[in-house]
Design a protein that fits this description.
Strand content: 5-15%
Structural class: alpha/beta
Oligomer: single chain
Number of strands: 7
Radius of gyration: 18 Å
Largest sheet: 7 strands, mixed
Helix content: 25-40%
Order of helices and strands: EHEHEHEHHEHEEHH
Distance between the termini: 31 Å
Strand order of the largest sheet: 3-2-4-5-1-6-7
């Protein structure tokens, strides 16, 4: 059954993933709009991007103008679980009729994980390297890697709890960044690993998981519950302990 026609997923997490320009954001927006129909089509859009240059400002502006005027936008680079809880409140922008679950669109997890890794000036932030240490190319201090992994794990777990405890419907957009070659530098490998772990954690609790390929959605949950499950090929469970890029990659 197409989740676009299934209103029973209200109060659940739906993850939409894919590569760059795969159509994932467009599909997620269609999905959120469909699920929000019972509440007048109102959606709260949580944007995690930050515009640091003119090109990014233009991209953000284009996204904003393409969204329905009835949608509320909340810019939230880091504190996403808190933004979800605030949007679920009765006085939140886009709050709907009593008894109807608010619909929230998170776009995207990819940039959120980036912001979490660099929050608080971690890994040098935007500052030039001090004492010759180059975070772009040098091996990363293990303590900083573990701290970054812990930040991502805690934030993603917090988001899952926020969805479960508030009863909202969250459509989250993310990227599959590990399908190409192994990144050359340690910091890029850390990012690839942490986003992969975050995606696994979100997918585990998701009511729907959709992979966009050249604009076409694949229902991953349905596929994994079909012939693959019958053959004993169950999904690989993500672990509850704080994952680290220091572990053996999967």
């Amino acid at each position: 059954m197409d989740i676009l026609d299934d209103r029973s997923v209200q109060g659940r997490l739906i993850l939409v993933t894919g590569g760059a320009r795969s159509g994932k954001s467009t599909y997620a927006e269609r999905l959120a709009a469909s699920l929000a129909e019972p509440r007048g089509g109102r959606v709260t859009y949580i944007a995690t991007s930050e515009a640091h240059d003119e090109e990014m400002e233009q991209r953000v502006s284009a996204h904003q103008t393409s969204r329905p005027a009835s949608w509320a936008t909340v810019e939230c680079p880091v504190e996403v679980p808190g933004a979800v809880r605030a949007a679920a409140g009765s006085g939140a922008p886009g709050a709907g009729p009593a008894g109807v679950s608010p619909v929230i669109l998170l776009d995207c997890v990819t940039l959120w994980v980036t912001n979490l890794l660099f929050s608080g000036g971690a890994f040098g932030g935007s500052e030039p390297p001090e004492d010759g240490y180059n975070y772009d190319k040098d091996l990363l201090p293990p303590a900083e890697e573990r701290a970054a992994a812990a930040r991502v794990t805690a934030a993603v777990d917090g988001l899952v709890r926020a969805v479960a405890e508030t009863g909202i419907t969250l459509v989250a957009v993310t990227n599959e960044v590990g399908l190409g070659v192994v990144p050359e530098y340690p910091l890029a490998r850390l990012y690839r690993d942490q986003l992969g772990w975050a995606n696994q954690r979100l997918a585990r609790d998701a009511a729907g998981l959709y992979l966009l390929v050249s604009g076409y959605p694949l229902d991953v949950k349905a596929l994994s519950a079909g012939p693959l499950a019958a053959a004993g090929l169950a999904p690989i469970p993500s672990t509850d302990d704080a994952p680290s890029s220091l572990k053996e990659p999967q």
